[in-house]
């Protein structure tokens, strides 16, 4: 079998951010794959986990050769990597590909490409860089200071969420734990004793669900 698709997997996903995002993914799998020559499509992030709220759909697309031109709706975030670069990125601790191997849902693959990658890497997958997570947290903190001067409460909460998310991820990675999806971070952080960050992040995530 050259191509493998798993449309039944989509039927089990209950937390689509919109009907448009679901329809776009279904169309990509049903009609668009063959024209792009894609090696694999993997769903990752919150939508791939059993969480109550999902703001967008995260898709990892691996392609051979020329990068395909794909135009998703606003609530579908597509990350694309060339097939020849994937294993080097895994060795370097690429967080998107690593997360997809550890937690992702395979939607499509050609010639068992993703199954082979996952089999060879899943038991010795490098952790992402805690330093990079700390840098992202610091950038969010700097933006937060500017927003506090303006007084934009929604933007403040968004940046604070980003700052705490990245700080929490850094703490988990330094503890040897691979961070799961954002809604799962508070519980992971409590398990390593980071209760203060966990409680603040949990409260902010609850506000996002309400708004």
What does it look like?
There is one protein chain. The protein is of the alpha+beta class and about 210 residues long. The protein has 2 domains: about 5-120, 2-Layer Sandwich (Beta Polymerase, domain 2); about 130-210, no CATH class. It has 9 helices and 5 strands, in the order E-H-H-E-E-E-H-H-E-H-H-H-H-H. The protein has helices spanning about 5-10, 20-35, 85-90, 95-105, 115-120, 130-150, 155-175, 185-190, 195-210, and strands spanning about 5, 40-45, 55-65, 75-80, 105-110. The model has no long low-confidence stretch (mean pLDDT about 90).
Write the layout of secondary structure elements.
Layout: E1 3-5, H1 7-11, H2 19-36, E2 40-44, E3 57-63, E4 76-82, H3 86-91, H4 95-103, E5 105-110, H5 113-121, H6 130-150, H7 153-174, H8 185-191, H9 195-210
Parallel strand pairs: 3-4
Antiparallel strand pairs: 1-5, 2-3, 2-5
Helix pairs in contact: 6-7, 7-8, 7-9, 8-9
Task: Summarize, please.
This protein is an alpha+beta fold and about 210 residues long. The chain has helices spanning about 5-10, 20-35, 85-90, 95-105, 115-120, 130-150, 155-175, 185-190, 195-210; strands spanning about 5, 40-45, 55-65, 75-80, 105-110.
Helix content: 40-55%
CATH architecture title of the largest domain: 2-Layer Sandwich
Outline the biggest β-sheet.
5 strands, mixed
What strand line-up does the widest sheet have?
1-5-2-3-4
Number of helices: 9
CATH superfamily of the largest domain: Beta Polymerase, domain 2
The CATH topology name of the largest domain reads: Beta Polymerase, domain 2
N/C terminus separation: 46 Å
Number of strands: 5
Flag low-confidence runs.
none
Overall geometry comes to: globular
Strand content: 5-15%
Counted up, domains total 2
Structural class label: alpha+beta
Task: Output the radius of gyration.
Answer: 18 Å
Order of helices and strands: EHHEEEHHEHHHHH
Per CATH, the class of the largest domain reads Alpha Beta
Give the rounded overall mean pLDDT. Answer: 90
């Amino acid at each position: 079998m050259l191509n493998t698709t798993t449309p039944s997997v989509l039927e089990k996903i209950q937390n689509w951010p919109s009907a448009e995002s679901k329809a776009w993914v279904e169309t990509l799998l049903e009609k668009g794959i063959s024209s792009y020559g894609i090696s694999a499509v993997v769903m990752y992030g919150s939508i791939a986990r059993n969480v109550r709220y999902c703001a967008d759909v995260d898709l990892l697309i691996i392609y051979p050769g020329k990068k395909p031109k794909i135009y998703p709706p606003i609530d579908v975030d597509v990350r694309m990597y060339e097939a020849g670069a994937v294993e080097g990125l895994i060795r370097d601790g690429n967080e998107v590909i690593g997360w997809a191997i550890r937690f992702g849902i395979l939607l499509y693959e050609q010639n068992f490409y993703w199954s082979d990658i996952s089999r060879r890497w899943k038991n010795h997958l490098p952790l992402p860089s805690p330093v990079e997570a700390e840098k992202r947290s610091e950038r969010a903190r700097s933006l937060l200071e500017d927003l506090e001067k303006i007084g934009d409460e929604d933007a403040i909460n968004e940046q604070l969420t980003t700052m705490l998310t990245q700080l929490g991820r850094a703490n988990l990675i330094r503890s040897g734990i691979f961070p799961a999806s954002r809604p799962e971070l508070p519980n992971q952080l409590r398990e390593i004793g980071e209760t203060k960050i966990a409680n603040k992040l949990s409260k902010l995530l609850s506000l996002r669900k309400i708004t």
